[in-house]
């Protein structure tokens, strides 16, 4: 067995779902979560960063033809790759939730009209929607999502941000809009009927879209992913945008032929509801992606068996991922040593991998595990190329030493591209921990950070909330432990600080 040649042909896939759309279907297990989502029972998919939300999103897109056969049409409301369309809002964002509600509704109405046009759906309701949007210059045509959003934002601003002329604004008593605004899409229902036959509320546009799809026996799904990227630079903007989005989601429940499918990180949902969000109790069609030891083992096995070189060398098929857990674990240990750190009280290799990719919230996400496997492959290939000992035992592909050499890269990327990128305000405090012990108390942190003990607890608690620390001890005597995932990047030393 030429282990070097086998590994040269191996890949465990990309850790970011958007980068491996073509291969996702071959790895994917059709779990109950997926079945319920594909069946249309689920609208909101929560999960930690790297847990696989975008994988589900990408699979929905890739199975567009199967959904079409079920009379379901898909339209993406955010770019699945590249620059998010909503990034353009950052220089001059909507000023409050009311503006965002209007923005979301008009944006969705425009996308839904584009979907009707794309599939050639023509009926009286579609025609009414067409006339209104065409008159206001809001037909999508060949515009990108960013282009559509730009047009909608300009319209909403004109409607909801009247500018005074010499200190006075004349307001229409029916529409409550400034008379200088010439648009005929309004963001509340007219107080009197029949004043202007062309006047349409944005809610009426969504009613027309729903009726147009219903008349043809189809349902439209509007997909929203990457919301963490779209609003990442402004927490207040993110809160306004997402609270408004969920209010629009609840309004759309009255229109069953138009459905929102929202993919959102659990920490962001927790953040926007932390100060109270009464509508949250009405969001019931949801699920949270969770991973356990068996499902993560299955992920490793499926990605390993996706490689023809491994299947050929070990005499397995791609169906090994459907085998009993004991069979999958046996195959795992055909590839890997029993232990990385040898000893009767040391963990086995699978548990070692999971402990090294788990954050302070005790959450394992596929992203870091996949990254560690690919880093492990790269390290072992380099070891073969220079003849580094020890070599893998028996027919195993990986030597024990390769596992520890693979970890620093994963730790560094997680720290810099997740924590520093998303919580830049925490970077100075994390940098001060370099070279320190892995278990800290309020008193030791106070000394390191040059703050009071009370301040150190507050800062450490914030770091625990984003997964850097695992909080231990008691409420009266808390301790803060750094998980293995971050230790290499900060050169932390095992043990308790004194």
**Uncertain residue ranges:** 163-181
How far the N terminus sits from the C terminus, by CA atoms, comes to 51 Å
Radius of gyration: 27 Å
Number of extended strands: 11
Description:
With 498 residues, the protein is an alpha/beta fold. The chain has helices spanning 3-8, 21-27, 32-39, 53-62, 64-69, 97-118, 124-135, 145-160, 202-215, 227-230, 235-252, 266-273, 293-305, 308-314, 325-335, 349-356, 366-386, 400-422, 427-431, 442-449, 453-465, 484-490, and strands spanning 44-47, 72-76, 185-186, 200-201, 219-224, 258-265, 286-288, 437-440, 470-473, 478-481, 493-496. It has a 5-stranded parallel sheet, sandwiched between helices. Strands 9-10-8-11 form a 4-stranded mixed sheet, covered by helices on one side. Strands 3-4 form a two-stranded parallel ribbon. The radius of gyration is 27 Å and the shape is globular. The relative contact order is 0.11. The model is unreliable at 163-181 (pLDDT under 50).
List the helices and strands and how they pair.
Blueprint: H1 3-8, H2 21-27, H3 32-39, E1 44-47, H4 53-62, H5 64-69, E2 72-76, H6 97-118, H7 124-135, H8 145-160, E3 185-186, E4 200-201, H9 202-215, E5 219-224, H10 227-230, H11 235-252, E6 258-265, H12 266-273, E7 286-288, H13 293-305, H14 308-314, H15 325-335, H16 349-356, H17 366-386, H18 400-422, H19 427-431, E8 437-440, H20 442-449, H21 453-465, E9 470-473, E10 478-481, H22 484-490, E11 493-496
Parallel strand pairs: 1-6, 1-7, 2-5, 3-4, 5-6, 8-11
Antiparallel strand pairs: 8-10, 9-10
Helix pairs in contact: 2-4, 6-7, 6-8, 6-9, 6-11, 7-9, 13-15, 17-18, 18-22, 20-21
């Amino acid at each position: 067995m030429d282990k070097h040649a086998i590994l040269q042909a191996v890949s465990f896939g990309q850790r970011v779902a958007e980068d491996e759309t073509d291969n996702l279907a071959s790895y994917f297990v059709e779990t109950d979560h997926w079945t319920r989502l594909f069946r249309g029972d689920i609208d909101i998919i929560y999960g930690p960063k790297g847990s696989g939300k975008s994988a589900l999103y990408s699979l929905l897109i890739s199975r567009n033809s199967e959904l079409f056969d079920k009379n379901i049409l898909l339209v993406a409301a955010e770019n699945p790759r590249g620059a998010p369309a909503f990034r353009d809002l950052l220089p001059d964002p909507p000023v409050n939730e009311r503006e965002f509600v209007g923005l979301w509704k008009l944006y969705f109405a425009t996308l839904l009209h584009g979907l009707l046009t794309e599939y050639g759906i023509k009926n009286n309701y579609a025609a009414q929607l067409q006339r209104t949007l065409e008159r206001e210059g809001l037909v999508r045509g060949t515009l990108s999502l960013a282009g559509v959003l730009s047009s909608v934002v300009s319209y909403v601003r004109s409607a909801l941000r009247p500018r005074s002329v010499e200190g006075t604004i004349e307001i229409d008593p029916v529409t409550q809009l400034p008379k200088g605004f010439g648009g005929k899409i309004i963001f509340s229902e007219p107080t009197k009927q029949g004043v202007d036959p062309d006047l349409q509320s944005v809610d009426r546009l969504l009613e027309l879209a729903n009726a147009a799809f219903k008349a043809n026996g189809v349902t439209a799904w509007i997909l929203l992913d990457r919301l963490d990227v779209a609003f990442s630079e402004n927490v207040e903007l993110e809160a306004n945008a997402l609270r408004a989005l969920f209010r629009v989601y609840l309004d759309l429940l009255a229109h069953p032929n138009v459905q929102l499918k929202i993919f959102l990180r659990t920490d962001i949902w927790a953040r926007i509801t932390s100060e109270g969000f009464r509508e949250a109790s009405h969001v019931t069609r949801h699920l949270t992606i969770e991973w356990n030891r068996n499902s993560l083992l299955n992920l490793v096995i499926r990605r390993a068996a996706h490689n023809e070189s491994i299947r050929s060398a070990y005499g397995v098929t791609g169906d090994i991922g459907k085998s009993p857990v004991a069979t999958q674990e046996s195959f795992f240990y055909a590839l890997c040593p029993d232990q990385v750190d040898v000893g009767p009280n040391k963990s086995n290799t699978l548990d070692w991998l999971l402990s090294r990719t788990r954050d302070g919230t005790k959450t394992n996400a596929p992203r870091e595990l996949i990254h560690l496997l690919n880093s492990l492959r790269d390290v072992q290939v380099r070891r073969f190329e220079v003849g580094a000992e020890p070599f893998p035992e028996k027919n195993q592909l990986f030597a024990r030493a390769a596992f520890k050499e693979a970890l620093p890269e994963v730790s560094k990327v997680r720290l810099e591209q997740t924590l520093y990128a998303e919580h830049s305000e925490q970077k100075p405090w994390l940098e001060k921990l370099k070279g320190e012990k892995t278990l800290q108390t309020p008193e030791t942190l106070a000394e390191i950070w040059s703050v009071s003990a009370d301040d150190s607890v507050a800062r450490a608690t914030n770091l625990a909330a984003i997964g850097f620390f695992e909080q231990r001890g008691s409420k009266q005597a808390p301790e803060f432990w750094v998980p293995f995932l971050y230790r290499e990047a900060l050169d932390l030393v095992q043990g308790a600080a004194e």
